[in-house]
Amino acid sequence: MLNSAKLKNAGSRIAISAIALVLSILVGAIIVAALGKDPITVYSALFEGAFGGALSLTGTFNRMIPIVFAGLAIAVGQKCSVFNIGVDGQILIGSLISVYMGAFLNLPPIIHIPLTMVVGALGGMLWSMVPALLNLKKNVSVVFSTIMMNYVAQYLCNFLIQKMPGYVSNKLATPNIQDSAAISNLFPTPWGINSGILISLLAVVVIYIYVFRTRAGYDLRAAGFNRHAARSAGINIKKNVFMAMMVSGLLAGFAGSTEVAGLTHCLVENYAPGYMATGIAVAMLGQGNPFAILLASFLFAGMKNGAPLMQMKTGMSNQFVSIVQGLIIVFICSENFIRWIYIKLKTKKKVRENGNGSN
Amino acid sequence: MNNENYIVQLEHITKEFPGGVVANKDISLGIRQGEIHSIAGENGAGKSTLMSILFGLYPQTSGTIKIKGKEVRFSSSGEAISMGLGMVHQHFMLIPKFTVTQNIILGMEPGNKLKIDYKKAVEEVRALSEQYGLNIDPEAKVSDISVPMQQRVEILKVLYRRAEVLIFDEPTAVLTPQEIDEFCGIMERLREQGKTIIFISHKLAEVMRVSDRISVIRLGRLIGTKDVKDTDERDLAMMMVGREIVLGGGEHQHAKEEKTLLELKDISYSEQKVGKLNHVNLGLRNEEILGIAGVDGNGQEQLVDIICGKLKPDSGSYTMLGEDMRGRTIREIKEKGLAVIFEDRHKDGLVLPYSVKQNLILGYQNRPRFLKNRIFINQKELDKNAEELKEQFDIRCGSLDAPASTLSGGNQQKIILARELSADPEVIMAVQPTRGLDLGAIEFVHKKLVEERNKGKGVLLFSLELDEILALADRIAIIFKGEIVKVVENKGVTKEQLGAYMLGIADEEVAQDA
C-alpha cells in the first residue's frame, strides 16, 4: 500500500505544515522583538513551561484532551466541506449534560462513568443536530446557525447553572460530579495524566478508520471534494452533510464530557476556554489527518501550558500563544504561497545539483 | 496566391523546458503573406508552444524568428504586438462588466493621461467592425453578448492594435456548426483585407475548409507542410497521429430480438415558467446507438438530467427495462442499469483529488465486491480493479495512486469509460463524450461505444458534433425547442438534412432540398 506516489504526496504535505509552523514561529519572534523582548528567552520559557519536567508535561497532556476532540470535530466537518463553527456551544452543552449525569445520579462507576461520558457527548450531538436539521430541511447556512447556537448555549448554560440545585455561589459553578462518575489519572503525581487521554487516542483511531477506511467515509470525502460528481455518482449529499454535523457534534460533546469527568469535575459560569479556535488551528495544521491532528494538538497544548510560565518569567503576555495560533491558520490558508516557497526551495536544490539549467 | 513571400519565418526552432521536456524540436516553417495557414496537431504536440514563442510569451531555446525578413527576438508579447502580430486566445480574456469598446481599448486608451476619449474609441471600434463585417455593437456589455460575438470582440482587439498576422488558437472549439460557418466567413473577409492568418486547431474538417496550407506537428516535430489541395482529412489525421485513424462504427444490422430498454413518453418540463421540454417521446432499443442531434440549448441538458434522475419531469412517463423511473433517486436509476458519461468530466465525472484507483469505483463503492463486512472499503479489490481496468482500457498514468487531476483529458475520460462500462450497464448515456479529446482518444471512445452496442447494450449519444453522430448512430433523433421533431435511420441521411431538422425546418421543405 505504501508506494512512492503516496510517500511523495505525504512528504510534500508534511513539508507544507512544517513550513507554515516555522513561518509562524519566525513571525512570532519578530513580534516579540518588536515588543522589546528577546525571542529566544521568550520561546525558551514557553518550551520549559510546556515540556520541561514532569509537571509541565502532565499539564500539556491534560490540556491536549479537549483540543484533540475539538480538532477532530472540525476536521470531520471539513471532510464534507461543512464548516461546523458551533463546536464551542456543543462542548458547553456536552459539559452541562455530563454534570447533570455525573452529579445527580448514584450509580456504580462501571455504569456511571460511561453514562456520563456518552450521554454528555450525545448532548453535544444534540446541539449540532439543530443546525444540521435546519440545513437539511430549510437550507439554512450551517455557518450562521452554528454561530447563533454558540450564543444560545452560552446563555442557556449560565441560566441552568445558576438554577442548578447545589449551585456553588462563591465559585459561580455547578456542584461537583460524584466520585463514581469521575475518571482517574493514569499515574500518581507528578505524572497525573488523566485517563481521558486514552479516550482521545481511541477517538483518533476510530475517526481515522471511519473517514479513510469505510465506505461511509469514502462517500463523505467525495461529497466534500466535489458535490456534483458525488451526486452524479448517486451519493446522497444531504445525508452526508447531516452525518458530518452529527459526528462533529458528538466529538465536541466528548471534549466537554472528558474534561468534566476527568479534570474539572464541574462547570463554571461563562466558561469559554476557546477550544474551537485551537481546534481549527490543529485541524488545519494537521491537514485533516487525525494522527497529524494529534501531534498538532500536543504542540498547541504545550504552548497553552507553557504560556503562564512564559508570562511569569519574561513578562510576555500569554495572549502571545493565541497570536501564534492565528498565524498558523493564516499560513496554512495561504497554502499556495507555501507551496510556492516549497517548490522554490526544491528547484534551487535541483539547480545546485545539476549545475547549469538549460535556460 | 502569393509566391515565396514569407511574412513570418520560423527557422530551426527548438524549445526545451526545465525538467527536460522538449516541446519543439527543430521546427522550420514559413507563413506566406496573405495566406490562411493552419497548424494542426494533437493536444500536447507542441503547436501552442510554438505559437507562444512566436507571440513573445517565452523565448526559444535555439533557432531564429524572422518577421518580414528581419530577425527578431521578442522579450514580451508587447513587442510582438508592436511588430504586427496578434493572438486571439482560446479562452477569452474579456471583462464581462465592461462594454465591447472598454475591453478593446484596455491598455491602449485614446486621450490624455487624465481623460479617456471614450467617444472617439467607440467610433474607431464601430468603423473597424464595419470594415471587417463583424457587426458588433461597440456599446454592448460583454456579459450580454453571445459567445461567437465575444470571439469577434477578441478579433477586434487584435485588429485595433493593427495586427497584420492574426494567430487564432482553437477558435472553433466554442462554436456551434452554424457559428462555425459565420466564423469561416470572417476569416475570408480578413484575408481579403490583406491579413495573414495562422489557425491552430485539431479539428480537421475546419482546417480543410479554410486553409491555404497546413503544417502538421507531432510530438514536437514538424511532419510536413502541405497545400490544401494536396491532402485530405484522412491524410492529415495520419500525419497527426502516425497511423491510420478509423472513427465510427461501420455497418451494423439491427438486433434480432428487439426490446425497448428505455422509454420516455410525453415528457414535459419547465424551469421558472419557461418550457424546456415539450411532450418528448423517445425510445431506446437494445443493440443500438441512438444519437440525439440538436443545436446546444434545445433541451438536451434537461433531458439528460431527467434520464439520470437529477430532475423530475412535470408530466409524462419514464420507464427503463419496463420499470417506472419517475421519482427514483439518482442511485436507484444507476443501480437499475444506467451508466452515464457526463459532459463535464471534471464536474460530474471525477473527484479530482481522489486517486485514479478511487475514481475507478466512484458510484460503485456500494457493490459487495468493494466492501469488507459491508462497512469497510476492500482495499485489495480496489487495487485489483484498478490494475485490471488500467490494462483493459490502456489508462496512462504515473501511478494508480496519483490524483486523477494529474492525468490528461483523454486518460481522465478513459477512467470514466472504464468505470462505467465495466459495471456492465444495460443502458449507456454518453453526453459529449469526446469533448476536448485528441484524435487518438476520440477513436478509443468511439470504439468502446460501438463495442457496447455490439454486445447488445443500448447507447444514448448526445453530441453537438454532427460528424460524430453520423459516424456512430444507428438511428438519429433530432431535438428542437424541447421536442423530438424527427427520428431517422442513419442510412443515407446528409448533414444538410440533419442541419435543417435541427433548425426546425419541417419535413416537406427538407425533402425538397435533399
Q: What brief labels describe this structure?
A:
heterodimer, A: 359 residues, mainly alpha, ABC transporter involved in vitamin B12 uptake, BtuC, B: 514 residues, alpha/beta, Rossmann fold, 6-stranded mixed β-sheet, 18 helices, 22 strands, globular
Could you please describe the fold and organization of this structure?
The complex is a heterodimer of chains A (359) and B (514). Chain A has 359 residues and is mainly α. Chain A has one domain: ABC transporter involved in vitamin B12 uptake, BtuC. Chain A has 14 helices and no strands. Chain A is globular. Chain B is an alpha/beta fold and 514 residues long. Chain B is 33% helix and 26% strand. In chain B, the strands form 5 sheets. In chain B, strands 6-7-8-3-9-10 form a 6-stranded mixed sheet, with helices on both faces. Chain B has a 6-stranded mixed sheet with strand order 16-19-20-13-21-22, sandwiched between helices. In chain B, helix 6 links the parallel strand 7 and strand 8. In chain B, helix 13 (379-393) packs across helix 14 and helix 14 (409-422) packs parallel to helix 15 (439-454). The two termini of chain B are 35 Å apart. The mean pLDDT of chain B is 89. Chain A binds chain B through residues 1, 3-6, 209, 213-219, 221-222, 225-226, 228-236, 347, 357-359, and chain B through 16, 18, 61, 308, 310, 329-331, 334-335, 340, 342, 347-354, 358, 362-363, 365-366, 370-371, 375-377, 379, 398-399, 401-402.
Layout of secondary structure:
The complex is a heterodimer of chains A (359) and B (514).
Chain A: H1 4-34, H2 39-51, H3 54-79, H4 87-104, H5 109-138, H6 142-163, H7 196-213, H8 215-225, H9 227-232, H10 237-264, H11 275-285, H12 290-314, H13 320-333, H14 335-354
Helix pairs in contact in A: 1-2, 1-13, 1-14, 2-3, 2-12, 3-7, 3-10, 3-11, 3-12, 4-5, 4-6, 4-10, 5-6, 5-10, 7-8, 7-12, 8-10, 11-12, 11-13
Chain B: E1 6-16, E2 22-32, E3 36-40, H1 47-54, E4 62-67, E5 70-72, H2 77-82, E6 85-88, H3 100-105, H4 118-131, H5 147-160, E7 165-169, H6 177-192, E8 196-201, H7 204-210, E9 213-218, E10 221-227, H8 233-241, E11 260-271, E12 274-285, E13 288-293, H9 300-308, E14 315-320, E15 323-324, H10 330-336, E16 338-341, H11 345-349, H12 356-359, E17 371-372, E18 376-377, H13 379-393, H14 409-422, E19 427-431, H15 439-454, E20 458-462, H16 466-472, E21 475-480, E22 483-489, H17 495-502, H18 507-513
Parallel strand pairs in B: 3-8, 3-9, 6-7, 7-8, 13-20, 13-21, 16-19, 19-20
Antiparallel strand pairs in B: 1-2, 1-4, 4-5, 9-10, 11-12, 11-14, 14-15, 17-18, 21-22
Helix pairs in contact in B: 13-14, 14-15
